[in-house]
Design a protein that fits this description.
Layout: E1 2-8, H1 11-19, H2 21-28, E2 32-38, H3 49-60, E3 65-72, H4 85-90, H5 95-112, E4 120-121, E5 124-125, H6 138-143, H7 147-154, H8 174-184, H9 191-202, H10 204-210, H11 212-226
Parallel strand pairs: 1-2, 1-3, 3-4, 3-5
Helix pairs in contact: 1-9, 10-11
């Protein structure tokens, strides 16, 4: 049986991916066990690379296990000291270039320390998990009743080529937009509960159709399991 370990930022991603990603992969691949855990030493969100490194090293020491990540590009800051941060986010401003630089940086840094990366698939989501929720209006329509909330949420995605292009400033990242729209109407975004419910209604197929990087990650993971 193939084994996969996915390291994510928090409980929202754990719950959502057990709801939609694991069943999807298991529908494509037989005899695969998938475990999803939040980063150790985190209260939700990314941690310094120095804290993540031992976790990656321990998982990758198991040569039979496929290890991958799902981190938000938006949340990676200079203080986290991730490899290639400067090249990705300071020396240039194209996030689609930057995210690849940081993914490659993770793999290169591990390899430079003698850690096998043969079964490692680094993945960083543009710009964060909540981008996936904008792949379809069905999730918002299911979860929220307020017509003003729905109007404002539905108005966001058409402005961008893909949901992954919804930008990553502290004010306009996908989650910040959801929070702001709900708070304006006296409501609250319950990240774990709402994120899971909306994701289930949107469905992983719609997410993969609208979010090319996310689709490539899922397909790469499946191909790795099948190899």
């Amino acid at each position: 049986m193939k084994r996969v370990h996915i390291i994510v930022e928090g409980q929202t991603e754990v719950r959502v991916f057990y709801s939609i990603l694991v069943p999807y992969i298991q529908s494509k691949v037989e005899n695969v066990y998938i475990e999803i855990t939040p980063i150790k030493h985190s209260a939700g969100g990314i941690v310094k690379y120095s804290k993540l490194l031992p976790e990656l090293r321990n998982h990758l020491a198991d040569k039979e296990k496929i290890v991958t990540t799902f981190f938000d590009y938006y949340g990676l800051l200079e203080k986290h000291n991730f490899p290639k941060y400067k090249e990705a986010k300071i020396d240039q401003t194209n996030s689609k270039v930057g995210v690849v630089l940081m993914e490659d940086g993770l793999k290169d840094d591990l390899a430079s320390q003698g850690i096998s990366t043969k079964n490692f698939i680094p993945y960083i989501q543009l710009h964060e998990f909540e981008a996936l929720l904008f792949s379809s209006d069905e999730g918002f329509e299911f979860q929220y009743d307020n017509p003003r909330v729905l109007r404002d949420l539905k108005a966001i995605s058409p402005r961008y080529q893909t949901p992954e292009d919804i930008n990553d400033s502290p004010v306009t990242a996908p989650s910040k937009r959801i929070i702001g729209i709900l708070e304006k109407q006296g409501e609250k975004y319950e990240k774990v509960i709402d994120g899971d419910a909306i994701s289930i209604m949107v469905g992983i197929e719609a997410m993969m159709e609208k979010c090319p990087r996310f689709k490539a990650w899922v397909e790469t993971l499946i191909l790795k399991i099948l190899a």
